[in-house]
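Pinned message: reference record for amidase
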Amino acid sequence: MAKELLNKTATEVGKLIEGREVSPVELTQALLDHAHEVNETTNAYISFRDEAALAEAKAAEEEIAGGNYRGPLHGIPMAIKDNIYVGGEVTTMASKIHGEFVSQDDASVVKKLREAGVVLTGKLNMHEYAWGIDNNSPHFGSVQNPWNTDKVPGGSSGGSGAAVASDASFTTLGTDTAGSIRIPSAACGLVGLKPTHGRVAKYGCFPLAWSLDHIGPMSKSVADAAATLRAIAGFDHRDPTAVDVPVPDYSADLGGDARDLVIGVEEDYFFRDVDSPIEQAVRKQIEDLVSQGATLKTVSIPSLAISEWTELATSLSEASAIHHRDLQTRPDDFGADIRFLFELGELFSGVDYLQAQQARRQIKQEFTAALRDVDVIIAPTLPVMAPDIGSPTAKLNGQDVDLIDNFIRFTGPSNLTGLPAMTVPVGLTDGLPIGLQIIGRAFDEARVLKVGSIIEATNPMEGKRAPVGATATV
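Predicted structure (tokens):
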């Protein structure tokens, strides 16, 4: 089987599987062979499930041959982030402390993926306990960006980003507490969707911060993100944050043009201190939407000025509560950066945390008001480009700026509000991808996906792919 087949999107290959033009067993073997090979460069996988994956692929092939086709992901091989439990198998959270942890049950999303007929190929590298944005792990090594292996892939779902960008997984799942789906998706040239809080059940996903955590797709295309979200969305009573609302067919309304769309732009926050090539690429896409008939409207969300403090006060406090006992009994078993952040979280008082929740409510109210007048808000996903591995800073118009603060600056507000937000690639600068962020109304992922598909249809990436990928022949 040619490696070029691995270049295709999940939904493209899914159609070939449905028509029995492609064997899930042969496809899975080809992907596993390629993933093992490319992992020597990217370090995207923590562990592989070769034998189990081939058994699942064989079962899928037999079901399809018997006329029991389950949908667009049936027989599709994919790996998932290693903080999402697969029952009876090790889930490490890329940590030393949980390095041999085995859950009894599948996570809600893994159960749903199995029901969709997905073939699970392995678990993907991540920043330890999902609390970081460069994916430079002291326990499992750094993940390299497939566009430039000297650069970080973003985090915390860096292995997820690198795996899909290098064709080592057709689509995947990431988790997002301050941007950990959208940051690596932007850095690796992918579509990454953080759904509305409560849309996807989180049972069986190790928490970072209970009230901010989300699970969502990281994919090669908007169509893949739509199909993956459809597969994993839905209520599970075992997750107290899950919301019991209908799950639409997210693929049904993709495409079309921008007529009748009202696009919101918040200039004071989302276009302040942005690296020039990123701003130019995002504004060009906004102009293209307007040229297609969209209406552009400026919105004002003044409370964004306090969103960074609100995000950190909330996430650090909740994360430190989760890890409090291990901080007391096993502090040296944390990576140094993680230990520092968790210890920092112990310094926030109850007053600080509750004040942050009041600020959070104000931010949410202002976003809700702004979105009454517009269909979506468009912004850069990241204000800076991915730096070299190990660098604590990034370049913003030639100046060194703090990496963590800037990587989460534009993504964190959607975790505070719980609103759906998706990044789509809109071009390259110095060989690295640029991401554009689309923020929508609660539970209106369908519109966010539609806008993303309209942008994608203009081919802003001009067919360019990561140099580390499936370009040879098996």
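Pinned by admin. Summary line: Residues 3-457 form a domain with the Amidase signature (AS) enzymes fold (CATH 3.90.1300.10).
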